[in-house]
Specification:
The chain has 275 residues and is α/β, with parallel strands linked by helices. The chain is 40% helix and 20% strand. The protein has nine helices and ten strands.
Length: 275
């Protein structure tokens, strides 16, 4: 009996050690799971874009594309892209937004094409703040600024809106938090303790009172629609969730272009004198 108990104790200790090593591996390597940067130089800027270099408060240098608004009343979108590829992959979408009559400032996150540094949630927050500061420097009133967050960038859009005045939020494939998704994917890991970049959009949403439009695929294999619904419920102000049919993540802009265009135009019209 003692031999059996001793063997069981050894097995349990070995299992605990393996589990601890696994947790340590997740702790050290998690950013490679969350961020998938393409650091290659940007080459596909829309024809109308001006390339900018922005300085963050913590000393990083970001590349950004600026597509000037057609007039001094038009909305200006601060575009915060997702965790994969780089701005080159978004160039057609950015061009279409400009064609719709909006100004666009599209950031290349730290660690992504043309920008210095390594990605992290805290770093991305500084990047988003630098983009907002650039719009202020250009004299763009908050009543004209609309934050467009894509996938993981949507969490940064929500967090920025919780601390800075804006006209509204347009979120493509947004979700309540990266932590909530990790809990679903890894229920056997203590992700609440391990996660360094939880991207708690749900907490920030309670501080956002401006209008929000959420677009999400009905069958999203990356950020399931339940997480979009949870984020939708977390907003304090007027929020609307529209589902795009099909199995996809980050749907093509053409699939929700009329909705997005009408939403942004409505925000600026409502803010205008007599609107």
């Amino acid at each position: 009996m003692k031999t059996l108990l001793r063997s069981l104790a050894v097995l349990l200790a070995a299992a605990a050690l393996v589990y601890l090593v696994l947790c340590m591996g997740v702790w050290t390597g998690q950013r490679r799971l969350l961020f998938h940067p393409d650091a290659n130089p940007l080459r596909e800027a829309p024809a109308a874009a001006e390339t900018l270099r922005l300085q963050t408060a913590d000393g990083e240098r970001l590349q950004a594309w600026w597509l000037a608004p057609p007039n001094e009343q038009a909305a200006v979108l601060l575009y915060l892209h997702g965790n994969g590829a780089n701005l080159d992959a978004r160039s057609p979408r950015l061009a279409a937004l400009h064609e719709d009559g909006f100004g666009v400032l599209a950031l290349s996150w730290r660690g992504y094409g043309g920008s210095s540094g390594e990605p992290s949630e805290a770093g991305w927050r500084e990047d988003a703040r630098a983009g907002y500061a650039e719009l202020k420097r250009r004299g763009i009133a908050p009543t004209r600024i609309v934050l467009f967050g894509e996938s993981l960038g949507s969490a940064q859009a929500v967090m920025l809106a919780a601390e800075q005045p804006v006209a509204g939020l347009l979120l493509d494939s947004g979700f309540d938090s990266a932590l909530a998704i990790a809990r679903d994917l890894y229920p056997w890991l203590p992700v609440d303790w391990l996660m360094r970049d939880p991207h708690r959009a749900d907490r920030a949403a309670a501080k956002v009172a401006v209008p929000v439009l959420l677009l999400h695929c009905e069958q999203d294999p990356v950020t399931p629609v339940a997480h979009a619904r949870a984020l939708h419920k977390a907003f304090r102000g007027p929020a609307r969730l529209e589902l795009v049919p099909g199995d996809c993540h980050v749907p093509r802009y053409v699939e929700f272009r009329p909705l997005a265009r009408a939403f942004v135009q409505g925000l600026v019209k409502a803010a205008a004198p007599g609107g």
